[in-house]
User: Which sequence fits this backbone?
C-alpha cells in the first residue's frame, strides 16, 4: 500500500473513532462519576495530562520510524529485541482488551435499550458476536472504507457530545462549581486510570506506518487526544453541574424516553463497531510486523492486494471468539469491568515502554534532543505514579491476569531465543 494513502484527517477520525467517544463517556464515565462524583472533570484533566505526555512521546517516536508496528517497532529499535517482543506482545493484549472494552460497553448499552422489548439476558453474548463480527468485516473490506466510516460517525458524535453537555448545563441553570478535590485519594487515581481509556484512541494509529506518513501519525496522535480529552472534561463538568453520580444510561433513558432509547441503540451499535474495528485494524498491523520478524509464523506477514489479509483474519477470529466466550460466561457488564481494568493497566505498560524508548534513543544526541528526553522522563514518572497508586484499587483477578500475561510474554521471548539459538547451532553443524 502506497505511502500517504491515509491523510491527516483520515488518521484523526480513525483515532477518534478508536475512542468510541460516546460509549466511552457512557461506560468509563459512569465508573468515574461513581468513584469521584462531581470531581470527574478533574480526574479527566489528570488523565488527559498523562495521555498528553505519552502522546508527545508517540509524536517524537513516529517521526523517527517509518516502519509500521507502532509500540513494538519503537521498543524493538530503541531498546532491545527482547523488550521489543515483550512490548508487541503486551500491545496485542492491550489492543484486544481495549477494543473489547469499547465493544462490550456498546453491546451492554444496546442490551439495556433492547431490554425494554424484553430481550433475553441469556443472549447478551449474541450481541457481542454480532457487533464484533460487523467490526471485523469492516476491517476486511479495506482501510479506506474503515476510514470513511470512522470520519462520518465521528463528526456525528462530536456534535452529539457538545449538544448533550450544553443541555446538562442548561438543566442545572448554568451552575458553576469547583471541580478540584481537597485531597488525592486512591479512588481518584482509579478514576484517572479509567479516564485514560477515553482519549487514548491515538494508540490505534501508531501501527499504520505503512499506510500513512509518519509526520501525520504524530500530529494526529496529539490532536486527537486533546480533542477527546477536552470534550470529555467538558462533558463531565456538565454532569457535575446536574450532580449526577448514578448510571448515565438510566438517566438518559429517563430524560429522553423513546427518542433516548433509539439514540442510545444507534450510539451503542456505532461505537461498539468503531471501537472493535479500529483496534482489530491496529492489532493486525502489529501482528503482521511481528510475523515479518519471525516472532510469529511468517505466513501471517503475507499481503493480498496490499493488505495483511491473513493477520487480519487471525486477529479477527481471536477477537470475536474471545469476546463472545467471555460475555457468555460473565455477561456484558462483567466483561466490560474485566477488560476495562486490563486495558488501563496494559495502556500504562506499553506507554512506559515507549517513554523509555524515547529516552534511550534521544539520549544518544542529548544536547540536540534534550526536550525529547525531558518529555520522556516526565511521561515515565507520571505513568509510573498512576500505575502504582491505582494498582491497589483493582480487582485481584484483574491484577493476576495483567502480570500473568506479562510473565507469559517473557517466557515466550525466552523460548523463541532458545529455539533460534538451536536453529543457528544446527546450521553450523
Assistant:
Amino acid at each position: 500500500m502506497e505511502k500517504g494513502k491515509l491523510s491527516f484527517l483520515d488518521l484523526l477520525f480513525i483515532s477518534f473513532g478508536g475512542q468510541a467517544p460516546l460509549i466511552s463517556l457512557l461506560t468509563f464515565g459512569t465508573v468515574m462519576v461513581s468513584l469521584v462524583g462531581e470531581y470527574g472533570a478533574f480526574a479527566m484533566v489528570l488523565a488527559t495530562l498523562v495521555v498528553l505526555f505519552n502522546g508527545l512521546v508517540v509524536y517524537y517516536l513516529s517521526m523517527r520510524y517509518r516502519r509500521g508496528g507502532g509500540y513494538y517497532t519503537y521498543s524493538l529499535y530503541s531498546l532491545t529485541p527482547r523488550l521489543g517482543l515483550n512490548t508487541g506482545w503486551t500491545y496485542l493484549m492491550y489492543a484486544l482488551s481495549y477494543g473489547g472494552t469499547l465493544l462490550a460497553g456498546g453491546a451492554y448499552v444496546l442490551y439495556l435499550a433492547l431490554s425494554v422489548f424484553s430481550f433475553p439476558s441469556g443472549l447478551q453474548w449474541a450481541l457481542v458476536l454480532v457487533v464484533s463480527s460487523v467490526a471485523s468485516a469492516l476491517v476486511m473490506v479495506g482501510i479506506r472504507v474503515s476510514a470513511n466510516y470512522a470520519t462520518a460517525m465521528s463528526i456525528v458524535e462530536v456534535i452529539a457530545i457538545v449538544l448533550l453537555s450544553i443541555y446538562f448545563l442548561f438543566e442545572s441553570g448554568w451552575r458553576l462549581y469547583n471541580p478540584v478535590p481537597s485531597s488525592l485519594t486512591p479512588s481518584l487515581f482509579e478514576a484517572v486510570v479509567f479516564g485514560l481509556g477515553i482519549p487514548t484512541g491515538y494508540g490505534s494509529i501508531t501501527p499504520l506506518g505503512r499506510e500513512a506518513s509518519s509526520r501525520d501519525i504524530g500530529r494526529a496522535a496529539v490532536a486527537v487526544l486533546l480533542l477527546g480529552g477536552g470534550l470529555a472534561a467538558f462533558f463531565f463538568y456538565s454532569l457535575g453541574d446536574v450532580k449526577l453520580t448514578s448510571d448515565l444510561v438510566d438517566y438518559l433513558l429517563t430524560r429522553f424516553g423513546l427518542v433516548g432509547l433509539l439514540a442510545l441503540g444507534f450510539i451503542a451499535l456505532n461505537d461498539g463497531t468503531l471501537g472493535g474495528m479500529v483496534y482489530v485494524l491496529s492489532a493486525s498491523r502489529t501482528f503482521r510486523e511481528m510475523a515479518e520478524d519471525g516472532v510469529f509464523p511468517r505466513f501471517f506477514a503475507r499481503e493480498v492486494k496490499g493488505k495483511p489479509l491473513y493477520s487480519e483474519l487471525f486477529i479477527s477470529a481471536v477477537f470475536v471468539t474471545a469476546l463472545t466466550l467471555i460475555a457468555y460466561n460473565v455477561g456484558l457488564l462483567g466483561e466490560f469491568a474485566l477488560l476495562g481494568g486490563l486495558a488501563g493497566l496494559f495502556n500504562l505498560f506499553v506507554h512506559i515502554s515507549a517513554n523509555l524508548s524515547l529516552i534511550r534513543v534521544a539520549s544518544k544526541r542529548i544536547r540536540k534532543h534534550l526536550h525529547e528526553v525531558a518529555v520522556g522522563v516526565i511521561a515515565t514518572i507520571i505513568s509510573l505514579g498512576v500505575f502504582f497508586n491505582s494498582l491497589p484499587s483493582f480487582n485481584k483477578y484483574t491484577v493476576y491476569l495483567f502480570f500473568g500475561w506479562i510473565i507469559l510474554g517473557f517466557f515466550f521471548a525466552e523460548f523463541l531465543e532458545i529455539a533460534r539459538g538451536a536453529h543457528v547451532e544446527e546450521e553450523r553443524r
